[in-house]
Structures
1.
Amino acid sequence: MNKKLLNLYAVAAFICSFVTAFSADAFFENINQFKLNNGLQVVVIEDHKAPIVKQMLFYKVGSINEAIGKGGLAHLLEHLMFRGTPRFPGQQFNQIMESNGAISNAFTSQDVTAYHQFFDVSRLDKMMELEADRMQNLQINNDDFLAERNIVFQERKQRIDNNPSAKFYEALKKVLWQNHPYNRQVTGEDSEILSLRLTDAEDFYRKYYVPDNAVLVLSGDITVEKAEELTKKYFGNIKSQNYVSDLSLPTLPQNYKASISMRLPDVKLGRMTNIYATPSYNLDKDKIYALEVLAEYMGGDKNSPFYQKLVIQDKKALDINVGYNPISRSYGVFEIGLIPTDIERDNLFLELDRAWNYALRKLDDEQLAMTKEKLLADLIYLEDNPEDIAELVGYIAAADVDLQELKNYEKGINQVTLKDVIAAVSYLQNEAPQVSGILYQLKGDRNE
Amino acid sequence: MSKKPMYLKRRGGSKVFWVSALLALLLIAVWCNRPKPAVQPEPVVEERQEIISESVFKGRVEEIVSPKFGIKAYYMFQKSGLTSVSFTFIQSGKAYENPEQAGVANIVAQTLKEGAGWWSAKELRNLMGSSGIKIGFSVSKDDFSGQVTFPNEQKENAVKYLREMLLNPHFEDRYVETAKAGAIRAIETQKENPSTELLLEFNQAIYGDFAYGRNPIGDIETIKKINRRVLVNFVRNNLAKNRLFVGIVGNIQKEAAEEMLDNLFGKLPILESREIGVPYINWHRPDVNIERNIPQNIVVYAAKGTCRKCEDFYPLYIANYILGGAGLNSRFNQRMREKENLTYGVSSWLDLNDNANILTASFSATGDKSERAEKLFEEIWQEAGEKGFTEDELQNAKDYLISSHNLRFASTSGIAEMLAYMQKYDLGVNFLNQRNQLVKDVTLRQLNQAAKDYFDSNFIKGKIGNINK
């Protein structure tokens, strides 16, 4: 199935948020959770506007868990999960989805593998039955294995190799993350994919696809009572494996600053990107709010002085991009990107620094207040779509972050002071492991 | 920045990181290997009573008329914290541009928010940003569209801002110049992406000189000449009351919604209807082949389609669903992906346009598999035309289309868009209740007649990659 390459920020846009008339507390009251005896965490988000439900099963396993040389295994297993069980053999899973009008898919990221269905609430029983069945009874034959391995190989070609931006990103990640498993591409490398064996997938499945390593999110026209009844019925009898994570993650060296310059023949539009490894909810949750505010201030909209300086005044960039993702099992990531106007002419590192410092000089209490207001004004959109909120909540829970953090978000943002933002900037500049990269066009007569 | 794989999705100089977005749009249009139909010409499907009688969506669509100017809209009350208004101006899209100003509609969509009425662009961004009001514009081949979504208590402000954008836009120079530079660069760099490169040539091969064959971003020379005056004229000469379809959904009473229509759109002009004719398409023209040394070939097909109100729309819609619209269960995917592992995915869809309706399909495959994939694709296509489909396949398709009906009601803004769409295609205010019957009524004979009429040897093929290997 398709791996949607961690489309988190489409969703994390919603974590923003607040408007006086919207009661965030009332909304969060609609989010409840419980745990089954076997350790399965269940989160229920009630939204009764339409008779539909989004079911998402997150396993806390992704490319971060792959052994060296087994790149792409988590993703390949995701594909194999659609290949049948004794009860629903062959392609019955997909056929049942179709005949029930369900939109079904899955994705793999660095941290998680998630399976999801969006369907009419009257199909809830069936959907849960199927998802529970393949948690414990997957049966893969070698033909199916080889077929899916070919398909994910084609997928890698389509997603990465035909796309210079993706290749640039792959290179940046390798340099930034060094020996940390975030250095891997979720798809795996060509040679890795082709060397994977059926037993690799089976072992991976047995180890990680257990109820005590999973979070089930049910969002939409469903009550907690109904969710308890059905999850007990379908997932309740799956045995706990007393799963204990053996993941041990390296700490990146502080003050690590690397840069790369890449030239690819197909590039017509240059890029410049800085990536920083930062605190996350898991590593240092007190530090994330200042980084959130900083990202919004620098890149929230075209009023940002950073944008105004680089794009409007100096015309050094056609557009800029600033983002921060604190939801992760390990480090968070802060990123600054720009599309240069003339990549061959300008010293982009210098221009970026200038604009960044210019923006910082403009930051005062008034700007800070406006930034927070904008950041909080979108919270109401959380209640608009049961699919988006399910994905956001799933990512948070699967990163082993307490859902209470959703409620704390508004307070956390409001408490950020100018001093905090300046400290965050200083942290990014001086301490955070980081990589800067520029992507140029490889021209026939150039040698660089 | 749609190309950023991991972290960045939300912040850009513009919320829409649009240089990439334009490229992405092109990419999406031609290369939708998603497991569900890439283009959903069906906005809704009615409930199948015998199966899901316990879960009928309760929203009711009404036609409303504004008291002062008689502007019509479809309206649905929904208890929600948000209200959304979706609007479409027909005959105002890219294909209707003066060729001397190719690209202008895009620039208008990008910059219509950059200052309006009393407010500068900066003030508007702060006002909307801090109150959760979202306004966006977009442009397709045929239409210029927009949407405003707002927390209910922000209604007055949202209406004021949008009205001024439509009536008194400033088009502040610096943002217009940035948008122009971005569009020009986007054109210069279109060929970075092989699927975009293919799409540009392929469209030209299909449509020739007809307006649908133009570069969707415009033309570098004409974009350079665009100024504030050109933009203002585009607004005045296109955004007219009598070209307008509106959908309103949210926590708003009918009378208030009717009044809002007057406030938002009442002062727009009335303009003459415009026709651009229909293209002549030579379905027997030679293939489009572009030789490029890339890791994976991309292949696209186009064939004649049918119109939304045509009698054979539902039969063809279902036929396409079975053939290439049903994700992994489609015939194409079953045989090309599942059985022979030739591609990561293949899909086909109906491309509905006001002046040409097309069936389109695409897939990617590495050089060693491409030839077999193409041969098989064409075999499956022609076989569907010659032998048709089975009763089982028809029933499965109906089951899916009917039971997925309620999924269309996930978000307030999504429903508002659907209501505008229903009016554009003249589907009627009761469409949501009638639609399922239209699906159910399709017989195997009609289905196979549509297959015979459309899945024949009249198609155009395009390919980029290692052609001769």
2.
Amino acid sequence: MLEAVKTQQTPVIEGAPRSARADVQLDARLAAAPAPMTGVTAPARADALARLKEQGLPGPRHEYWRYTDPAPFNAARPAPVALEAVAGDPKLFADVDKLRLVFVDGRFDAAASDDPALAGVEITTLAQADAQPGHWVAEAYGVLEAQGQKPVRRAFAALNTAVATDGAVIRVTGKADRPVQILYRPSDAGADVIVHHVLRLEEGAELTLLENGLLGARGNVVIEADLAPGAKLHHIAAPRAGVARIATTHLFARVAEAASLKSFELSVDGRHMRSESVVELAGDDAVAHVAAAVLGDGDNLRHDDTVFITHGALRGESRQVFKKVLKNGATGVFQGKILVRPGAQKTDGYQISQALLLDEDSQFLAKPELEIYADDVKCSHGSTTGALDETALFYLRSRGVPRERAIVLLVLSFLADALEEVEDEDLRAEIAGRLEDWLTAKAQG
Amino acid sequence: MAVLDAPEIEVREGVDRETVETVANMGSYKYGWDTEIEMEYAPKGINEDIVRLISQKNDEPEWMTEWRLAAFRRWQGMTEPRWAMLNYPEIDYQDQYYYARPKSMAVKPKSLDEVDPALLATYEKLGIPLKEQAILAGVEGADASPIQGRDDARRVAVDAVFDSVSVGTTFKDELAKAGVIFCSISEAIREHPELVKKYLGSVVPPSDNFFATLNSAVFSDGSFVYIPPGVRCPMELSTYFRINAENTGQFERTLIIADKGSHVSYLEGCTAPKRDTAQLHAAVVEIVVLEDAEVKYSTVQNWFPGDEEGKGGIYNFVTKRADCREARAKVMWTQVETGSAITWKYPSCILRGEESQGEFYSIAIANNAQQADTGTKMIHLGKNTRSRIVSKGISAGRAQNTYRGLVTMHPRATNSRNYTQCDSLLIGDQCGAHTVPYIEVKNTSSRVEHEATTSKVDEDQLFYCRARGMDEEEAVALVVNGFCREVLQALPMEFAMEAQSLVAISLEGSVG
């Protein structure tokens, strides 16, 4: 790691001055939240609570909330959802050979889960680890989240660290021979789920983490992933099939020398979604790819991807690929940032955000940022927004492809670059297949 | 550095002679001298009495005084914006003069012949002769220019602003024949109150932002332009701003109105002496563009950037905005920002009229301890509107250079287009280059494209130049000029030359 990494120059980004109303809101939010655990994670939780109280809940005038109203996340309790509409698990990953961990309303359900025995992987739950004196999670819990609060404050991540009810605690020492799946299930119509997963990948370890299912009426997920030199984490999140939902998710990752993080998210039909990725390339030759394919269909629907990638070492490679297809009044938001610290030479940073607006009512709001303090770097970003290519549509129709089918094909081809970020071919084919089914069903509906 | 003997330079295809020559003639900040002249100041600080005094010095009518006072009262309740990526000490708004004018200007000279020779000499030395028979400097030496012989193209009317007052305006009579009004804003307030009342503050309202509101309260002078319907302004218009007095802020206000079907090209230049203490400059430029009219506004900003350690220099907080109020109105901003210790400047276009067009071409160079946070806003409100942004940012030394921009397509701005290209070049490993674009697309038929790159000076290009016998600084200047080419080409002839040499000068000492 470089000396220069210490000289962070970015000021903390403050929001608008706090109002008395926001403080009342925070009190109400905390009063409704579960009581914090009292075991080994207690000091980290107390620290997170203090940070949250110091910064308060964000208001709409907060710079990083200019495009997404934080009100649904600030509310003390979510509005209940109709559970019968979402009965059953999603089909995605159903046929993949994996080790399944089920969380019901944010708590681990051992009976529904597979036996957490997997060669090269130690799996426990946050509740269990918390009760175990001397467990390594005490050293890891909340650490990357706390680091990720600078320069941008992330109130809902601090809240999560303070009061999370459970989560998976995974330490990988070798190459996991099959993926670990975290599956969410709701049982209570008003479930306000707060889960916190801690991942530690030791030197040269490899893991594929699948995450899907339905969180509840409102969800708040934090993943902290610490990758030792040469480790590889492949994270595929697709938790958002089904009815209207509200969720904030945060992925905090530290990527050491020659380690690699690849994170892909598929999102369909979230109602009010804020998905943040905060990644630090801390060692030389580290790699981080963060990608998402988002389908937004429906009024008041908002999907916000906020990404912050920090290059703190030599020859880092980062890629951000975000594709959003929006219709019927949906709003897509992308706030992406590449920060190259002084001395992080030979950085290769790339970022693309594209939106396909399928009708007049939808909108795309983007803020793709670069902040660069080293000269020998290659950084670029691109952002485009537009409608379907009429020429391509005409071409397909002239070849006898019905209009609805032609649109499905063009949307799939638009999303292809993001799907490419799923390295495993079988998983990619699985996701592409589900995506096509979903699009076809929508086109016919 | 080696000074090359110009005629001996072998100029190859693709390398133009001017570039090589200007590179050879590089020097440090050329405009850092001051004019010794007796000045009179308003008392230090700002309060209602100072606002009234400025109004009174300009012989303003009551309504104007009230307008200023309303702005001042509002300003007192505002806080200075700190969201830009700029790091500068607290500004003490009570520790500077808001009005300074040469004593000899106490009685308004009736013509340029009556102006204090010391002032005329100042502009002469700056290369801005205030004699109508003379041509604007910067064109000298442009013998190879393709427009040689076209005298019209060379003539530039100048409004010269010295600290808080306009010293004089050239070619006024000739412009008047064409119906063009070109005078200082203080004169316009007295002579053309109906136009000023109608348009002043209509693009940048007095409540717009902290610095614009401060300007609305204390602006002392600036330029006023009115181009009547269907008139193509017979010559280029320009304003040259010179800050001379110490501890004095300059607050100029420019108002340009291009009536239906008219056309004008306007140039703005600025310099200031070298001083150890930072000086405040908070200007407002408002442009109203009506149906089928076209305004081209070009700036070469060369305020004193402070010394290598970041001591002194101008703090430049500027609000510039053009309102394409009617159909097919067009505005083009071109800026070369090389000076100032702090630059906070976002020339913007409100594209209200259908099929109106906005363009923004910018070169921003920050060297040593300079900090620049600059960009544009393209606000698409009308149907079929078009905008284009080309921004080239260059950072060297320990400088920080940020592009900050907004492109917004409102739901009604259907079938609109935007293309944005922001490139940053880093010279050295101690500087920073940042890009903060905001893109908001609220309808489907519009297309928005944004591209940005950040890179260092290409080693292969440098090596090529070095292999052809250039020293490192020349080579860098040449490569940088190439990097900026698209913007340099958008500048009027008079400015392109100056800008090109400025690019080289600003980067002096950044390599090796």
3.
Amino acid sequence: MSEEYVLELKGITKEFPGVKALDNVHFRLKKGEIHALMGENGAGKSTFIKVITGVHPPNAGELFLNGKNVQFTSPLDAQKNGIAAIYQHVTNYPDLSVTENIFMGHEKVHKGTKRLLWKEMHAEARAILQDLGSSIDPKEEMGSLSVAQQQIVEIAKAISTNAKIIIMDEPTAALTARESEELYKITERLRDQGASIIFISHRFEDMYRLASQVTVFRDSKYIGTWGVNDISHEQLIVAMVGREITQVFPTKTNKKGEKILEVKELGKIGYYADISFTLHKGEILGLTGLVGAGRTEVCQSLFGITTYDRGEVFLKGKKVKIRDPKESMNLGIRYLPEDRQLQGLVLDWSIGRNIALPALKELSRKGWLSEKKEASLAKRLAEKVNVKANSIFDLVSSLSGGNQQKVSVAKLLTADLDIIILDEPTKGVDVGAKSAIYEIIHDLAVQGYSIIMISSEMPEILGMSDRIVVMREGRITKIIEQKDATQEGILEAAMSESKKVEIG
Amino acid sequence: MEHKTELDNQGYIQRSLLDKKEFTFKGFFLQWEWMLVIILIAVMIINATLSPYFLNYPSLRDGTMTFLDKAFIVFPMAMIMILRDIDISVGSTVALSSVVMATMYNSLGVPMELAVVICLVVGALCGLINGLLIIKFKELSAVIITLGTMILYRGIAYVILEDQASGNFPEWFGFFGWGYVYGTPFVLILFICVAIVFGVILHKSTFGREIFAIGKNPTASRFSGVKVDRIKVIVFVLAGLMAGVTALFLTSRMGSTRPNVANMYELDVIAMAALGGVSTAGGKGKIIGTVIAVFIIGYLQYGLGLINIPAQTLLIVVGALLIFAVALPKVRLPKIFRKK
């Protein structure tokens, strides 16, 4: 057994009932190395972390820590052995202070009286945070921090437990470019201090910026490990996806038809004002701007989640007033929410029940539900968007992020409709699934659906949209035809002159 | 499990998803309801051992008259708990409906037939007020709101009747509490009918499916076009209406009413629903389970009453059973007894 690896996993297999989540995978982590772990959603990365951190003991295979064969039976066990994980969805206590979050589970207490030693904890928290180059006040409430700052606190927590191996699961997914850069610096600092880091991400720029080694999983299997500079970008994509993706965006063949939606001077006090635009049959309208520009609010008003105070909405030439989601669904509008776990899906329901939820009326006669119709609709739509599962009775919570998103998309297609609003449809979705989703969106436009796509990703907006609406601080600043659109032009329209708004 | 996979024209694996559930005996018997059946049998055996008068058909039949009146509220309460809410004002609603009905008949000269209808209307109104307050003040929990209306409704009942009793109902009114149809107590027949209606609504209708969806994830339900607020109000109205039905049977059985009737009924009702497998965390529960739980708690109280255990001691039994019901699924039992 070689001593140079701080962590080595050999032949790890993990099975869940009916699914092999990991199939004989290997992994080696050197001391002081940043090692990127890449793969599509559902490749087994998340399960892999859970095996390392003792959440899921493997069915087969061995785990070596500093050359010693170990078995972790619980997360606490792994923590004691210097392993810490920072998860994709930051798990913390928003109502407690930063210090309390950092020391949760390993508080400093007085030896005799068991009194909590607040002063010492605050001081140490401050020291760790300063060491990370952050100026977060340890007494601040966790919930008042930005996602990026919360992530730094999570890292501080890992350091306070004396972690030597730190696993980061898609830490940059919710961060802006500038915040990501800060996170890169912190990660590098950790490495220089001797920690070994497993960095999981969908973003290639993360990997090229940070990692020296990259390991790829695909379909629960180990594909290979390379030095980052020894493998070309194309080879890496082939390794991850198993096929060559010649082009990410589909060649546009959708045709713009007659005007279907017209929004006139829509306004909601405190959120947006003077919103006017049109949407045509078969058109993909990109809606972009910085985070907080009011894009989601406008679309949620069109879908009836919130109401608008001013302005008019015309659907196929007729004036409509939308008061709640059911009404807008009856008018042929569907909305894919940004947060699929909170807003999109009932996680511990089956795929079938989730798909049927917006269509209960169509699946019933006089209020009585037909389970036969429900099953056939669910099967048809789940297969249409190619959900990876065994049966429509599988729980949505057992699916990977990309497959959950496909179920969300299937939910949109349960009825005849005209307008589909997609709010960040590829958020947290990997390369392979992304191009699959682009293809679905384009197909829908070809079939004559009109699509409004909210997105913060410039390539996505430029590659998919027929026209682009740019918003800034609750107002439309520019509507551009795709052929006239440039990255610079959009950015200029999206940025605030007052410079108060953070770049997103 | 087998399923065919094939490649479509773009090289993606095209999967075929199973759309039939396999029936397994293990899955069928691993249900909380079987545990309830075992508890019910145990209650029967204990009662039969303690009292020679318990285990015969007339006793078991007439015993139902003593506890089924409040059991009507269990079904809407199950729905409310599946919605992740709770209603602790139902006992007071029973009292207010009953007192209003008695006052209408005795003091205002309203015909009894109309007073019966008014009783149901008052119950439904109480439920409507609960429901409207709950959707209006979303940041307040249902416990706090219905605690308020619980005190309020009871207070109104006291103001109306001033701690007096009111009775002297026409003879036909006694039919609710004491009547038989083909040798079966009327209350038992109606209870079974109501149970079937609620069971079918909860488990077979779109309305029922939407109740479960709201209990699991209210936000996603709203984004999926479920009218969350409307469903909540309807369910609370149903709870009030059933409290009105309970008021009818209770008043009929006792022959008179006072403002302090149906005291702590809400606890019995919640205990029955919880024992029946309705999760207070929302989104889970079956009507069949609550029906069995009604008979468990009911027969337990009835049986202990037969051997002259005082009513105060019965509280201990109900309390213990409730804790038992909530704690049991958390205890690491042999797999077969775990609540699904």
